[in-house]
Design a protein that fits this description.
Strand order of the largest sheet of chain B: 5-6-4-9
Helix content of chain B: 25-40%
Strand content of chain B: 5-15%
Oligomer: heterodimer
Largest interface: A-B, 8 and 7 residues
Distance between the termini of chain A: 29 Å
Distance between the termini of chain B: 70 Å
Radius of gyration of chain A: 17 Å
Number of helices of chain B: 13
Shape of chain A: globular
Order of helices and strands of chain A: HHHH
Largest sheet of chain B: 4 strands, antiparallel
Number of domains of chain A: 2
Largest sheet of chain A: none
Chain lengths: 144, 404
């Protein structure tokens, strides 16, 4: 989400209903950004950012596709204004990716053996009692 | 001098580039399908400090990632695993292996010397078969008995477990369940095993693990051959119920010519007498604590040297007894043909006959025969008969049988 809203286009109807929640998430994001990294592992420092980003996109996605509470114009506006991540939402529409945590976890290019992240492995396929926490976004399993 | 890998060309001819690591079974882990990463000139060898190809892999579930630590030249030089530095054949520390095989090596420790030495060796090695260890002395020349006994029979995968979480030890690990390190009590820092050093382990000095193994080897039960060189008899105890003499002979004939084999089924024991001392020593060494027949581990002991023990013991322990009346006196010595009843192809018996049954002290007419001396007249009950004294005749066999 851009720091400054550049478009002069007035937001569509219903914006005032979702604005407080988005403002709250925005505030949380600010806090996460300014939080000190001391005492955290190197990977850990970005986890809250990924998490809040996911939450915000998820909020818009749910409102439009699940609860059908907002109009298509408002949804489109959110995507255009980059309030919701269109790429991430595009993945959620695919089977098996309904709960995907972040785009980095399905980026196979960055790994040694061209594999997905550990959080993409279904719980049933993991060995018994294994607890995972992926290094990219701290996801603890987003694949059933 | 910080230089990148690509710009550092110092002695680059010597940089090792390999396709496959030299590893032991334990380090590879239990999974037959392993993915390894290979990094050319990824690290410097911890022994010779030359860049080498580093391999990295995970040896199974819940194990830590392992990587090769020393270069292949150093590994071939000692025939050890590139990661754990244990002997490839026995999985034992270098110090133990070298002590058991009596290998002396004088690898240069000085930096320049070492570089020169390794360089020469490398060029030598490239001429020979790469699958063989360079040092032929290390190839098993008749597996050392000690090494076989000390070696593990199965791979020891516990060695691949993750390390103990240092944060947890300090009480500040915040990762909880997700922590890939072990949340366990660390080993005692005063434990000598906690202080290991890869170079010392490679050169086979001050290796605490090796010292522990050596101590264990020293404490192992051993069967020292008796001083009396004439003893060629082995006592075999704890025999299974239904063993036949033929079976026993089959087991013991492989170590040398057997002069006599006496099976005492009542006491579950047997006596094997070899024609030569070396054969009996060989048999004792090979079978002691190792021979299992019919699911029972046989007890192997040396026969007693009667010559020394017999008369002294008797004078101390037993009261003087009056001789039995009516026994025939000592016979005249038998003719020489009778004294050498063995066929000519067998070597003659040692100077003194092996009378582990204590027979010829009783002046019986037939030494070497088993049975007692039958008195001609039924004697009065008060009389003492050596042949019927349980403490004397054949007592060694029976006395030692129950304790097995």
């Amino acid at each position: 989400m851009p720091k400054v809203r550049r478009s002069r286009k007035p937001p569509p109807d219903g914006w005032e209903l979702i604005e407080p929640t988005l403002e709250e998430l925005e505030q949380k994001m600010r806090e996460a950004e300014t939080e000190p990294h001391e005492g955290k592992r190197k990977q850990e420092s970005l986890w809250p950012i990924f998490k809040i980003h996911h939450q915000k996109s998820r909020y818009i996605y749910d409102l439009f596709y699940r609860r059908k509470a907002i109009s298509r114009e408002l949804y489109q506006y959110c995507l255009n204004e980059k309030i919701a991540d269109a790429n991430l939402i595009a993945k959620w529409k695919k089977t098996g990716y309904e709960n995907l945590c972040c785009l980095r976890c399905i980026q196979t290019r960055d790994t040694n053996f061209a594999t997905n992240c550990i959080c993409r492995v279904p719980k049933s396929k993991l060995e018994e009692g294994r607890i995972v926490e992926c290094v990219h976004c701290g996801c603890r399993g987003c694949s059933g | 001098m910080a230089v990148s890998k690509s710009t550092n060309t110092y002695n680059r001819q010597n940089w090792e580039d390999s396709d496959f690591p030299i590893l032991c079974q334990t380090c590879l882990g239990d999974n037959p399908y392993i993915r390894m990463t290979k990094e050319k000139y990824g690290k410097e060898c911890k022994i010779c400090c030359r860049p080498f190809t580093v391999f990295r892999w995970c040896p199974g579930a819940r194990m830590r990632f392992k990587k090769t630590e020393i270069c292949q030249t150093c590994s071939k030089l000692k025939n050890v695993c590139q990661t754990c530095l244990l002997d490839l054949e026995y999985g034992l520390p270098i110090q133990v292996r070298d002590a058991a095989l009596k290998i002396q090596d004088d690898l240069p420790r000085n930096e320049v010397n070492k570089e020169y030495y390794i360089q020469n060796l490398d060029s030598q090695m490239s001429k020979f078969d790469a699958t063989q260890p360079s040092n032929m002395a290390l190839k098993s020349k008749g597996a050392s008995d000690l090494l076989v006994r000390l070696a593990r029979t199965a791979p020891y995968y516990k060695r691949n477990r993750p390390h103990v979480c240092s944060f947890w030890v300090k009480g500040e690990c915040r990762r909880g369940e997700e922590c890939p390190y072990r949340h366990e009590k660390p080993t005692d820092p005063d434990d000598p095993l906690a202080d290991q050093n890869i170079r010392d382990r490679y050169y086979g000095v001050n290796d605490p693990v090796a010292e522990k193994l050596m101590r264990r080897a020293a404490a192992m039960p051993a069967l020292p051959p008796p001083e009396d060189r004439t003893v060629t008899t082995l006592y075999i105890g704890n025999l299974p119920e239904n063993i036949t003499e033929e079976e026993l002979r089959g087991h013991f004939y492989q170590y040398g010519e057997i002069r006599s084999l006496t099976l005492v089924p009542r006491a579950q024991c047997a006596f094997v007498q070899y024609t030569t001392r070396s054969a009996s020593e060989h048999a004792a060494e090979k079978t002691f604590n190792r021979l299992v027949i019919g699911g029972k581990r046989l007890t192997i002991k040396w026969g007693k040297s009667q010559g020394r023990q017999g008369p002294n013991d008797k004078s101390e322990t037993l009261p003087a007894l009056e001789p039995v009346p009516g026994l025939p006196g000592t016979l005249p010595p038998p003719p020489p043909a009778f004294l050498h009843p063995f066929p000519p192809q067998m070597p003659p018996p040692p100077n003194r006959p092996n009378d582990f049954f204590n027979l010829h002290h009783y002046a019986g007419p037939a030494w070497g025969a088993w049975g007692g001396v039958a008195p001609p007249i039924p004697p009065p009950p008060a009389l003492h008969y050596p042949s019927q004294d349980p403490a004397r005749l054949g007592a060694h066999a029976h006395a030692s049988a129950p304790q097995t």
